[in-house]
């Protein structure tokens, strides 16, 4: 008998995952087409083919939908960042492209809306963003510089993520200068013996 290559996923978990993916895909389409201001829970529900109550049960609020969307976009961004750094033989160029992608994401309207809106939940969101970014950046660092210890990779990745998020949330420098500083820090640390 041939074993099934797919793991068995309980129906409730599979349905919830599909619902979240469908909603976030619709949110992305609506934001790109009409902007965040025109993207209501009712329009998301209608475009997804579920009731508003289903959306509220899954996400809780429009703000929570925005936060889930940001985390979804972050995961997409981290995939692209990894590809830019790992696919480029020049580490400096790879990190520059990666941080340009990050700042492009931060400039997206829904992310600007969340950053400018109710900041009561923002700290929790930033913590989650930093944890995900740290884990993924540490893995990239270990692939780019295998002789780096895992603890050093985590420390460096955490620092890079915090600096990038700080520049994004409370910019004090023009974007090109901020990117150049983060890239320079990256190359100084990664080129160190």
UniProtKB/TrEMBL annotation:
<dbReference type="InterPro" id="IPR001647">
    <property type="entry name" value="HTH_TetR"/>
</dbReference>
<dbReference type="GO" id="GO:0003677">
    <property type="term" value="F:DNA binding"/>
</dbReference>
<protein>
    <submittedName>
        <fullName>TetR family transcriptional regulator</fullName>
    </submittedName>
</protein>
<keyword id="KW-0238">DNA-binding</keyword>
<feature type="domain" description="HTH tetR-type">
    <location>
        <begin position="17"/>
        <end position="77"/>
    </location>
</feature>
<feature type="DNA-binding region" description="H-T-H motif">
    <location>
        <begin position="40"/>
        <end position="59"/>
    </location>
</feature>
<dbReference type="Pfam" id="PF00440">
    <property type="entry name" value="TetR_N"/>
</dbReference>
<dbReference type="InterPro" id="IPR009057">
    <property type="entry name" value="Homeodomain-like_sf"/>
</dbReference>
<dbReference type="Pfam" id="PF18556">
    <property type="entry name" value="TetR_C_35"/>
</dbReference>
<dbReference type="InterPro" id="IPR040611">
    <property type="entry name" value="AlkX_C"/>
</dbReference>
């Amino acid at each position: 008998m041939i074993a099934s290559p797919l793991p068995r996923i309980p129906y409730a978990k599979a349905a919830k995952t599909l619902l979240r993916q469908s909603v976030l895909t619709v949110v992305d389409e609506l934001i790109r087409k009409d902007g965040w201001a025109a993207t209501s829970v009712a329009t998301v529900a209608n475009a997804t083919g579920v009731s508003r109550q289903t959306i509220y049960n899954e996400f809780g609020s429009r703000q929570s939908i925005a936060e889930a969307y940001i985390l979804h976009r972050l995961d997409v961004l981290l995939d692209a960042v990894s590809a830019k750094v790992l696919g480029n033989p020049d580490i400096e160029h790879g990190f520059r492209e990666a941080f340009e992608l990050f700042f492009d994401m931060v400039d997206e309207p829904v992310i600007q809306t969340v950053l400018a809106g109710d900041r009561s939940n923002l700290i929790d969101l930033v913590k989650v963003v930093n944890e995900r970014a740290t884990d993924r950046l540490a893995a990239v660092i270990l692939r780019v510089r295998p002789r780096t210890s895992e603890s050093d990779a985590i420390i460096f990745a955490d620092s890079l993520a915090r600096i990038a998020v700080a520049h994004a949330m409370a910019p004090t420098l023009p974007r090109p200068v901020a990117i150049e500083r983060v890239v320079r820090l990256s190359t100084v640390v990664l080129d160190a013996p």
